[in-house]
Design goal:
- It contains 9 helices and 5 strands, in the order βαβααβαβααβααα.
- With about 200 residues, the chain is α/β, with parallel strands linked by helices.
- It has a 5-stranded parallel beta sheet, with helices on both faces.
- Helix 1 crosses helix 7 and helix 3 packs parallel to helix 4.
- The protein is globular and about 55 Å long.
Length: about 200
């Protein structure tokens, strides 16, 4: 394990479906650049595992947190995002945070049900669900209850939320610890060509 000062940053972004967590997480990772892994619950559970989130003996909670732990141990900063409902994922996510030797920042996007439906309908790639289905999934203020967890209200703009998480988590100033871009010859060549242009 890396010592705390050298260990990468773990950022967890949670919230109900349609709260904006995926869009926010993708923008934070885009702004950070290489050296930051983005782990999306929906992609891993729905696409890779094709596991229902209500089935017995779920693999997804362990699979997702194992992937995050592997990336962290390999020097990647990690953004983990998803509904990550406390009843099903809480123990796994809390364990991930507890064993991580570096900084961890946890955010819950607290958005009302009506606003989650509005945001869902405005998505560039909406998933095929009805408001009735979304209501069945909706759980108000489903926080993890870990120290330092920050609740972001729905009044926070997209830009404000991205800036808040980037700066409060420390990612805005965190150096990359992976070979890309720190020691990668291809990244060095790209940086050199950009600097000379």
């Amino acid at each position: 394990m890396l010592p705390f000062l050298m260990a990468p940053t773990l950022v967890v972004i949670r919230g109900n479906s349609g709260s904006g967590k995926t869009t926010t997480a993708r923008e934070i990772r885009r702004r950070y650049g290489r050296g930051c892994a983005l782990i999306e619950q929906d992609r891993l559970r729905r696409i890779i595992l094709r596991e229902h989130d209500s089935g017995p003996d779920p693999v997804a909670p362990r699979f997702i947190t194992t992937m995050a732990r592997t990336a962290l141990e390999s020097g990647y900063h990690v953004i983990l995002e998803g509904i990550l409902r406390t009843g099903r994922y809480g123990d796994s996510v809390r364990d991930l945070i507890a064993v991580h030797p570096g900084p961890a920042a946890v955010y819950y996007l607290d958005v009302s049900f009506d606003e989650t439906v509005r945001r869902h309908l405005r998505r560039a790639e909406p998933i095929p669900v009805t408001p009735e289905q979304m209501r069945g999934w909706y759980q108000p203020l489903d926080v993890l209850g870990v120290p330092g967890e920050r609740v972001v209200p729905e009044e926070s703009s997209f830009e404000g939320t991205v800036d808040l998480i980037l700066h409060r988590s420390g990612l805005a100033t965190a150096a990359a610890r992976t070979s890309c871009p720190a020691r990668c010859p291809r990244c060095a060549a790209e940086a050199s060509s950009t600097a000379s242009a």
